[in-house]
User: Which sequence fits this backbone?
């Protein structure tokens, strides 16, 4: 059985809007003496993808709507922040003081529609939205890395989400190329040859959690991790939204 | 920055009730030529802890209560299985056809109170309950490994849980010794020196997810993984239940 290795990419520069992210990642792989293969998986923090794609919003340029103003009263959050969250919101799920949990237009349920305020810029009044189409972002980075390196390992774009019932944010996949988010082991025999009952495994979310451990959450600043040593079946049709529970079977909205 | 390594313990025998689990793990560490240190983290699948502790229940010996009978109608699950789930249930959270989500008496919310039917025994009618006190189990294993090896790395006992909103089970910590489940980064400055707002990280659940990737979910049968290369602060007071959201702040019951 192989060891699983999570290799942080060192020396990636601070990413700026318009940067060729795949090019910078490839340069960092070369500098690190890492020999990329098709058996690796590249995990990238959403934040640097959003930055490269210029998904920054200056709070001063935001005009809060009436709905945003109403949510200020209920949450205590700044009006302009709420307005930007609403831009990306399909449905409001829970509202309390200091809590705004929504379904993002991409389908994910999380706090603040993934709109981020930390590690964005030296300017205190800048927000960062998620990439517009994280699967497309993952696909583009993977294609470009393929051209540069000659290999096309899967690419995951991850964020951290809070959870129902349990404290502590954990890494989850919000965009991907080349790897299915849920691996279905139903029907695979167990150790004793009996068929397993329910064993859908959250494969890419577990990869995201593992990579998130290495990335750290704060000042460490390591937004790309290479996972090495996991067996997987590539899947060119997979989308990050495949992980979402269909609304009619979701018991916790 | 260090690589994070997840090292599966090979050659662990099938665990039987009464087995000295720490002794078997230590033997497997020696056989594998692994030099354990206090900077490692030992992650153990709940299933082998429960088996060693004899938490098996023969379905034929279970007499379903009236409440279990009623839940058969609502879930379609076998009455004896439901009865065993109810033994460990503090509160029923959601009931649907084929779905029984409860709060375990240990505090965790998950399907079937963690009662397991697969990989338990060659006998088809045997269930496995969670360890009675998984923190105590982790502590005991850690103490015994300490006596054998001379070092006392933290020990996590993990299970896999389904999630609200997202498909696919992921590893989570249900028992631990020596490591706090939630690491609070509030107040740590971000990359640009601004204070972070909310950054509670689900440290041991991310470790559980990472280890779960390596353990696999089915026939692979690798129930112990050593995590190497993560910086952490030991915490002798930590309990697995520290990860649970207080009821009054839990919006998804």
Assistant:
């Amino acid at each position: 059985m192989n060891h699983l290795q999570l290799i942080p990419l060192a020396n990636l520069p601070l990413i700026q809007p318009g940067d060729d992210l795949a090019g910078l990642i490839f340069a960092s792989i070369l500098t690190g003496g890492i020999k990329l293969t098709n058996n690796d998986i590249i995990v990238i923090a959403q934040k640097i993808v959003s930055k490269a794609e210029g998904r920054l919003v200056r709070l001063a340029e935001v005009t809060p709507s009436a709905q945003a103003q109403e949510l200020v009263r209920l949450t205590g959050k700044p009006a302009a922040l709420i307005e930007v969250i609403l831009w990306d919101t399909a449905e409001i799920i829970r509202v309390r003081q200091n809590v705004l949990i929504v379904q993002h237009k991409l389908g994910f349920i999380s706090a603040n529609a993934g709109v981020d305020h930390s590690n964005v810029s030296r300017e205190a009044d800048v927000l960062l939205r998620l990439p517009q189409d994280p699967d497309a972002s993952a696909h583009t980075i993977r294609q470009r890395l393929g051209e540069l390196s000659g290999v096309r390992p899967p690419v995951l774009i991850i964020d951290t989400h809070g959870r129902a019932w349990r404290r502590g944010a954990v890494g989850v996949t919000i965009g991907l190329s080349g790897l299915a988010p849920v691996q279905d082991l139903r029907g695979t025999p167990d150790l004793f040859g009996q068929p397993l009952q329910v064993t859908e495994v959250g494969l890419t979310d577990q990869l995201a959690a593992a990579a998130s451990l290495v990335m750290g959450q704060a000042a460490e600043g390591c937004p790309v991790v290479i996972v090495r040593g996991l067996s997987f079946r590539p899947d060119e049709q997979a989308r990050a939204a495949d992980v979402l529970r269909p609304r009619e079977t979701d018991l916790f909205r």
